[in-house]
Amino acid sequence: MESIDAGDICAGVGFKDIRTGDTLCDENAPIVLESMTFPDTVISIAVEPKSQADVAKLDNGLAKLAEEDPTFTVRTDEQSGQTIISGMGELHLDIIIDRLKREFKVECNQGKPQVHYKEAITKSAQSRETYKKQSGGRGKFACIDVTIEPKDEDYTEGDLQFVNVVKGGNVPKEFIPSVEKGFKDCLNNGVLGGFPLTGLKVTLTDGSFHPVDSDQLSFELVAHQAFKVLCPKAGPVLMEPIMKVEVVTPEENMGDVIGDLNKRRGLVQGMEEARSGARVVKAMVPLSEMFGYVTALRTITSGRATSSMEYDHHSPVSSGLAKEILEELNGHADLVK
Fold it and tell me: Which of 30, 64, 280, 336 has the fewest CB atoms within 10 Å, i.e. the most exposed one?
């Protein structure tokens, strides 16, 4: 092709380092178009090759698939050493496993799907924490007054909103970033089930230091200590992913479809008429209730309904259900009120 215009679809051969969302342009007329924003993954499974000889092929296949699909991620679980793949739903991960088999000739064993829960706090808590260690020679010392609470609704720059209102140099300026880093490190492991904590506001109001014993690490460690003390007092809740579900069904099956969605803790938001007399049912349903939904839907509509779903948001789980989830995952649910 001599030229490709806006709206054309084309294939380019021989590119090496291109990712989804990149802009291709003339070197003499550089332009960067706004790239797409991709939602966080909501479901994970553990995978392993059926034979030890396929380990390298599996790693290579997963790396290639993750490179071309920004909504698919791969990581190694630090505690178990398992390879964990994450995506946007059951079907997404089924297709990944199928592509590994077809394109990369790797047969996989896979674990039970796991939902990506998060944690949040619901009220504020305040404390003065001191970290002190003396072990011959130079010691460690840091003291901070902090308040934690849910972050402001209009704050959009990440999951930690850090506010420093210390007056008079009670905490020297060079140690403030260490306090922030300490809290940021803790966000990956919430106090309920070790899930990522989202939407935390930390206000550093006061503190004290020692001219010899205080250093950056001491203030980082006192922040870790404050996080562990304050979060259980700040009404921690478990948050689950909620999916936006659309079902296209014949009118005579609509009552059964809605009844089934209600059983799955779904919230039906509306119904519309589709072409040829079918109905479109729209609902918000927790992802944990949607496993095996396609098969169940086929059964109740004799295979005549279709469904699609996409991630919408995370929402708090009721305390009774949170206890059940945490007991199943961790064997205990001490902090759920």
Answer: 30
Residue 227 CA neighbour count, 13 Å, CB half: 27
Six-digit token string for 243? 């999916």
> Would you list the DSSP string of 217-251?
HHHHHHHHHHHHHHGGGS-EEEEEEEEEEEEEEEG
Q: List own/partner pairs for 50-56 with CB under 8 A and 24 or more apart.
A: 50/107, 50/108, 50/109, 51/107, 54/106, 54/107
The predicted-structure confidence for 38-92, as pLDDT tens digits, reads as follows 878 888 899 999 888 888 899 999 999 998 888 999 998 877 788 999 998 888 9
Distances, alpha carbon 42 to alpha carbons 10, 70, 114, 137, 309, in Å: 32, 13, 9, 49, 12
Phi and psi at 334, nearest 5°, equal -65, -35
Q: Residue 88: CB partners within 8 Å, gap ≥ 6?
A: 39, 41, 42, 43, 71, 310, 311
**Per-residue tokens: 165:** 């209102």
Of 314, 114, 301, 144, whose CA–CA distance to 229 is shortest? 144
- For 94, other C-beta atoms within 10 Å of its C-beta total 13
27 contact partners, CB below 8 Å, separation of at least 6: none
CA angle in degrees (0–180, nearest 5) for 89-93-94: 110
- CA neighbor of 93 nearest in space, from 44, 40, 29: 44
- What's the one-letter identity of residue 175? F
* Crossing angle of the two packed helices 55-68 and 90-104, in degrees rounded to 10: 120
Structure tokens of 184? 């940021």
Give the pTM.
0.76
Average pLDDT score, the chain: 88
In eight-state DSSP terms, residue 3 is -
